[in-house]
UniProtKB/TrEMBL annotation:
Residues 1-24 form the signal peptide. The chain crosses the membrane at residues 274-296. Keywords: Membrane, Repeat, Signal, Transmembrane, Transmembrane helix. This is Gnk2-homologous domain-containing protein. Residues 28-132, 138-242 form the Gnk2-homologous domain. It holds the Pfam family Stress-antifung. PANTHER family: CYSTEINE-RICH REPEAT SECRETORY PROTEIN, GNK2-HOMOLOGOUS DOMAIN-CONTAINING PROTEIN.
Amino acid sequence: MSYASFCSLFLLAFLVSFISYAQQQDPTYIYHTCPNATTYSKYSSYSTNLKSLLISLSSNSGSSSSGFYSTAAGQTPDVVFGLFLCRGDVSQEVCRECVVFAAKDTLNLCPNERTVTLYYDECMLRYSDGNILMDFSMNGGIILFNPLNFTSNQQDRFIDLVLSTMNQLATEASNSSRRFHARKANFSALQNLYGLAQCTPDLTSQECLECLQLSINQLPTDKIGGRLIVPSCSSRYELYLFYNETAIGRPQLQLDSAPPPVFENTGKGGNSSVIILAVVVPVTAVFLLFVAVFVFRAKRKKTVYEMEPLAEGGKLPFL
């Protein structure tokens, strides 16, 4: 066996384990809310019912084709209602891993609260002592935005594109049986805008549309990226692809030409790193290594976002 062939086989084996490791990262935590207005004791009936509920949610997370499941456990006055919703483009395996992780995480983040909502990038888990099934809720959410702005001469065009794209997404998602849709639109010849909108499927089409319109109206559209998440729906836009395009198909681009965008830095940002590898191996092996490094960095990259919790009634503190 030649030296190059040996290096190729060694690198391939390394890549298999490397990619497997990258795919096993914990779900990306975003936010949680668990007001302590109502609590339960460790050995109460509510605690027992909650554990049964979390087991039920976890066990059904890998078989839900819609990425959504709701149920209840126990009897009044200690009944617990619960649900999970996975992002519409993730696989059943990713959905399962996220829900199982969230079910365990909730007992750490909110150890004795009766009403809890946990948000991750891949899924949401929610339970309460009140009936939250088929419930339209704009409370207990979070808004996140990238601190970078567009230059003033391009900002108006960008805001118009964000609003038109997101409102179109709201209509498409509300008319979908899964209450989910994502798409991209051209901002310039070199830059696309990516958007996603989703509701819990237990909402009616009209309720979903209303929820998304309310959330879109509060998006920080002067920023280059933003998202708003509430229990009943979520909306997000970015200048990079943040969802699995293959899982939802490849919608036709909206044609819109403009010069390449220029950003203004407000003084906050993340760190960057470069990994260079020099190995005398076949081109295929080098390509595979590049893919693996890209996947790993994408999994671990954390964009610096500003964050504002939503007040009761779904209004931001500064609106």
